[in-house]
Amino acid sequence: MSAAQTFDDRDGFIWLNGALVPWRDAKVHVLTHALHYASSVFEGERSYGGKVFKLEEHTERLFYSAGALDMKIPYTAQQINDATYETLKANNIVDGYIRPMAWRGSEQMGVTAQNSKINVMIACWMWPSYFTLEARLKGIRLQLSDWRRPDPKCAPVKAKAAGLYMICTLSKHAAERAGYEDALMLDYRGQIAEATGANVFFIINGKIHTPLPDCFLDGITRRTVIELAKKRGYKVIERAMMPEEMSKAQECFLTGTAAEVTPVREIGPYKFTPADVCRTLMADFDALVGRVQKSTAA
Asked: For the whole model, what pTM was predicted?
């Protein structure tokens, strides 16, 4: 696929409401409730060597998110898992990205939508790793966002719901216009929260500190990396963190399905140097998912 190819005009198949359909035929009506009222939830998953990483956990979260938005997915978790592999096989994807989604349809238009059908789809596309370990260790730059993660009393913050990503898009657009790769968001209290699509960690005097996920997603990759760090003997501290504490950190990295383990070298006025902890956890994560390390010396 060319880089300029749009996501609505591709060869392949998408699993839609129980069956594989040609990619270009997987469409919804313009009066779909999800388009007007953000009544949709989704997951982001990766396949490594033909095996979907933490598939059961992702599917469990998809069902949780749907329930949080008062939607009942009309399939079992096992059916969704089986359909995921069916879709990968149909598209000949071995190393790729998977996007399951559930949403309300166009049967009812208005805020209320009890009679709207709950639709489910699964799409996937190739997404290999392009960068060497050395290139990844360079680290990315983040801008501090003006937008904040909402109070749990204002939104279903534990759900991976489409509407919660509106401020992420705004934050990332502003960051990219300013020459950064991403943005760091604070929460409604002014505490450090997360990047636009990834959790954040800081290394302060040999210990790993990360914000307590009480108003944003406790990422599946986040939990995985915490386990890897503890196996290495690192002390991991989950706590409330204020932005000025970043001045004490020596290293910083992000975690997420897309980010995997991505070192950070700058957040606004704060600078970091990706080093031993970043290198170790990146290598451990690559080993866990079965990726062979590439080196510029090879």
From this structure: 0.93
